Amino acid sequence: MSRIAQQRRERNAIVDAYVKPHAAAGKSYAEIAAATGFNRNEIENSVNRLRTSGLVQRKRKPARPTFTVVADIRATDWILKEVEDQHGVSIQKILSRSRAKDVVHARHVAMVRMLDELGMPSTAVGRRMKRDHTVVIYARQKLEARA
Q1: CA atoms within 13 A on the CB side of 133
Q2: Could you give the percent of the chain with pLDDT greater than 70?
Q3: What sign has the CA pseudo-torsion 118, 119, 124, 126?
Q4: What is the pLDDT at residue 20?
């Protein structure tokens, strides 16, 4: 092994020793650089070496919940039933393509309640109401402007 290769290997071992605890804690490259004084390229290479050797695990982001659970579907049905009773517009009409003023208002109220009370994302609300998510966003803006 050449002298240069030996020096590089020694330098990598030093960098790895300093970087390992920070990488294991899940810190960003910038945070590790501030703490150790090494440049970003050295840190990135070190973290990659540590990951491939299995000494440091990549932290996984938690999966986002999906709204396909039966309880969520029942909750949306419950909201639709309440809106139907309050506004006098049938659920069938709320889910239809109708653009009548009273139907649209009832539909918007149902969408915003699903967003607020159930914490559903606009895409899930749109899917449930047979609309695009941008319609759900517009419904919220329209009701806020009305209030």
Answers
A1: 6
A2: 90
A3: positive
A4: 82
Residue 59 has pLDDT above 90, yes or no: no
Mean pLDDT of 114-140: 92
Q: Are 113 and 83 in contact (CB under 8 A)?
A: yes
Mention every residue, 6+ apart, whose C-beta is less than 8 A from residue 57.
Answer: 24, 51
Contacts of 70 (CB under 8 A, 6+ apart): none
Taking each continuous run of H as one helix and of E as one strand, the counts in the chain are 8, 0
DSSP H helical ranges for 29-120 = 29-36, 40-52, 70-87, 91-94, 101-118
How far apart are alpha carbons 33 and 19 in whole angstroms?
Answer: 9
CATH number of 70-146: 1.10.1750.10
Give whole-number Cα distances, 91 to 10, 94, 115, 119, in Å.
Answer: 71, 5, 18, 21
